[in-house]
Structure formats: structure tokens, C-alpha cells
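Regression report. Comparing outputs from two consecutive submissions.

Submission 1:
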Amino acid sequence: MKALLVIDVQNGVVDLGDFKEELSYMESVIKDFQSKDLPVIFMRHFDDMEESPLFEGSEGSKLHSSLDQYASNVIDKRTPNSFYNTTLQKELEKLGVTHLFITGFNTEFCCMFTAITAFDKGYKVTFIEDATGTVNTEDTYEMKGLDIRDFVGTVLDWSEVIEVLDFEEYAEKYTSLGSS
């Protein structure tokens, strides 16, 4: 069975940039999964430091209003890895999930760590590159010209164990318009 992870779509992240396109792609994938009665699991990250925008209980830690209406299944986490010290694996096992689709924030942290761990745990993994986003830039990493999302997607794709698609490829391959 397939399942979708929507990682850290929270005010403290989304409000730091213009993510209209990424959120639109995430919403389309969510609706596609829900139309097929496939599980959609939201991950919510909490930080322990009060000054963090993701401090538990803060406005920043809440799911963003653009997608929160779809969040009937939410699992909390405190590290970039959605599996570490969470109930995610038990939930996936209970649902009989074998193929995990990754969307959300931040591409190079929580999304990438979760994708790699999911593969290590035996799941088939599809990373929908342009349905992820990051608040970081080329300046964050002092790497002129760096396209973080493309870089992460390329690295995961080169692994030859994680399927990396853009939204159009996902729609063609997996939605009701394409094959399942």
C-alpha cells in the first residue's frame, strides 16, 4: 500500500518564504491520495528552545492553514528524521504501507533524512522534489548558484534506490490520469 508523508508544513516554516507553488503541489498530491483512500500522514516538528519558531505550543508550531484541513493523522517529532522516537513506523506497519511518498519542508533536512531512513527500513520511496521546499538559500550554505531542492533531488536520484520525481512526473505516473 502507498502512503503520503507531509512533513513540517507549519507556520514557523511556511511564513518564512513564498511557497505557493510547493503548497499547491502538496495539496494536489494530498487530494490524489485521499481520493484513492490512501493514508496521508502529517509530521509536525517541535523544538525545545523557546526562541525557535517551532517551539511546542507556539503559533509557529501549528500546521499552516493552507493544508491543516487535510491533517486528520498527525505525528509529532523532535528531530529531522520522521522515524526517530516517533510512532511513524508502527503506524505504517499497521496500515500495511510498503511505498512511501515524501513531500514537505525542509528539503535538505527533514525530507531528505526521512527519505533515506524510509529506504533503510525497507520501504519503496518516492521523493516529489518540487513538492518540497526549504527556507534556506545559496547564502545559507555559502555556495553561489546552489539550487538546494535540485541538489538534494539529484543526490537521492543518483542513489538509484529512491525514486525522485517532479510533480508532473508524479501526476503522469501515479494519479488517476496516469497509471497506478
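Submission 2:
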Amino acid sequence: MKIQNKIALIFTALSAGIIVALSVFVYFFASESIATSFFHRLEVRSDIVGHAALQENKSLTSIYYDIKERHLGSLPYEKHRILPGQPDEATKKRLALPSSFYEPAQNNIPARFFNHDTSYVVLRVARDNRHVMVVSSALDTYGMQEMNNLKNLLLIGFFIAMVFVFTFGKLFSNEIFKPIRRIIRNVKGINAHNLHQRLVVEPTDDDVEALSRTFNDMLDRLEVTFEMQNNFVSNASHEFRTPLTVVSGEAELGMSIPGLSDAAKESFLNIYKEVEKLEHLTNSMLSLAQTGFDGKKEQWEEVRIDELILSVKEAADRIIPENQVAIDFDNLPDDEGKLTVNGNLALLKAAFSNIVLNSCKYSDNKPVTVKISADSKYVIVEITDQGIGIPDREIGQIFVPFFRASNTARYKGYGIGLPLTHNIIRMHQGKADVQSRVGEGTRFTTYLPFKYF
């Protein structure tokens, strides 16, 4: 998950927690306020009913009820029970209220009780040395409706708020990470071919500026290192080849001396052959090192992979005339653009020639199939042989310079070809995959990106 998405989610989660806490606070205090108001209204009615019950002149009793109905109205499911004094156990059992509910009323303190959506009030009403205990109950339907409306309003408001919070969080994080994305785009555009490019450093005096300067410092060090390697290889190429050429020439001259003994001729011949091997090894090592350069000295152009494979086949025919390399064109893409890559023709030819010649060599010239295809991103070249294969425990080391599999002792080689091929493919922003079974053969699959991808 991208960091900006994480920030948006964290911001949303924190906001959700705050909104939930605020909603619970509002709901709780609204509930308390509505309940308190309803209990007070029920107490007023209970007090009027109690005074009406203590009125000796019964003709005036109707006045109390008339005042109650005219000015206060009745509450939903309103009931009043008048107890002449301290309620007995039978009365308490009949009303199904706890005994502690009546204790405050005995001390002239109104008591409130809420049970199963019904509100209860008990209070002691006294008049002319007489007193009664009034137990009143009612159902606050309006209050419950208000609380239900408030709950729905808070829930809807919560979800709407979450949508806005997440949206604005995404916009906020997107704006914050805009400089980071610009750095990522610029860094992706810097590769072995334009190592001299640098990031644009804006004087913002923040972490983004520090990050950009750090990247530029690292690129400075990398460019210096590449230049040093470039100079070393160029000088080593000249210094190695000159003495080897001299030794090779002297060996040829020694073999042509008249009257030379057979032992001396054989010695000069061995020197000549070993020098020839050393020259081949030196050239391979230099080629391997050169694939790590910055690409300034190589010529990059549009390369058609199908034409390249045909030229590799022609080269294999010259080197190993008895080869059985076959090219499968049945899976070529209809779009010719998917066969074109941007690369160095000589290096790519060297890479695929190494694979094809290895397939011929390690299969003792058994059939080798080269299939060309493409997917949505890469042009794919599969080279399959019927050779000796590579042991499973060693297949991960075939791109290590000078490594040779344990079953290749009877074949000449130096362990340079596949590492060179791997470096060339990586230089072209591609990748390679190898599948092999001992005694059955090897499939070497390369993926090179299209020119316009």
C-alpha cells in the first residue's frame, strides 16, 4: 500500500474515533436531558394528583384534574397509584418495583426509576397533617422518537463525514506527496545511459530538499565510480592485449625456426594455444566489465528482435555448421512495434549468440528451438534445448562469473558467457528466466521491453 493511502486511512481512522466519541457524548447528554425533563413533567402531574387525593372537599378535586388536563395534558400511558402510607410487601410485589425505590420518598425526596422504556416517579405529598405516597408511571414516546431520530442523524452524519474525511485526506496526502512523486519520476528516468542527470532541488528548506540533495550526492559518487571503471577497462584492454599479442607472435616465430627440435616446437605450440585461450578469456572478461558502463560509448538504436535472431542463426551456422537450431515464428505478434526494442545491436547479438551456442554445445548439437512471442509489455524469446540440463541446487548461480555447473566438466568453457548475457539483458531493462531439468534440457527465456512501452 502506498504511504499516501496509509496516511489517508490513518487520518480517516483518527477522525472517525473523534466523531464517534463526540457522537456518544452528544447522545448520552441528550438522553439525560430528555429523561430529566420527562421525569420533571411526571413529578408535576404526580404532585397534582396527590393534592387532589388529599382534598377533603371532593367537589374541588375535579378542579385539580381540570387544571392538569387543561394546562399540562396527559402523558402517553400515564398511570397514578395513590398509596395511603408506607406500601406493604403485597403492594410492592404488585407494582414490581425495588424496595429501595420507596425509601427517598419517605424522606420527602422524589424518587425516579426507569424500567423497560417506562419512567416511574414516587413522591410523598402532605396536606393538613395527612400524607399519601403517589407512584406515577408513563411512557416517553416522544422522547424515544427524538432519541431514535438523533441516533439516525448521528449515524448518517458519521458516514457522510467519513466520506468527506477520506476524500479530503486523499487530496491532502496527494498534495503532500507531490514532491516525493516528482523525485520518484526523476529517479526512474536516470539510468546507465544518462547518469549525468540530476534532480531539481527546490529551496524549500524541508526534508524533500534534503532528500533531493542526498540523491544528487549519491549520483555524483556513482558517476565518478563509473568513470573510474570505464577508464580502467579501457586502459586494461590496451595493456592486456599488447603483451599477449607479442607473446603470441613470438610463439609463432619460434615455431617457424628451421631445425627446431620436436620438443621445442611442441613447447612453442603449447605457448601459442595457451596465449590464444588467455586472449579469449581476457576479451570475455573485458566484455563482461564493459556491460556495466554508462552506455555513452555504445550506439543505441531500434533493433528488430526477429531480424536479430536470424543473424544469430547465421552466426551459429558459421561457427557450428552441424547445428540443429530452428526458429519458431508461429507466435509473432501482429503489431510489429512489439518486436522492436531500443538497444545496442552488437551487445544483443552477443547475448543471444551466447545462449544459442551454449544450447548447441551442451546438447551435443541436438535440436534447439528459438520461439519469439510478445505480451502486453515485453517481447519474449524462448530458447529451448535437449541438453544435459542444470542441477537444481546450482541453477541460481549460473549468472555468477566463472561459475560452471558440476556436470559440465567435459565441455570447454570459462563461465563468462551467461553472466555477460545477463548483464546485457539487464542493461536493456529486461529480465531473464531459466528452467532446467538434468538430462532433459534447459529453457532460457528473455524479456525485453518494447521501444514504445
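Expected: both submissions complete independently.
Actual: both completed, but the second showed a warning that disappeared on reload.
Relevant detail on submission 2: The longest strand covers residues 118-127.
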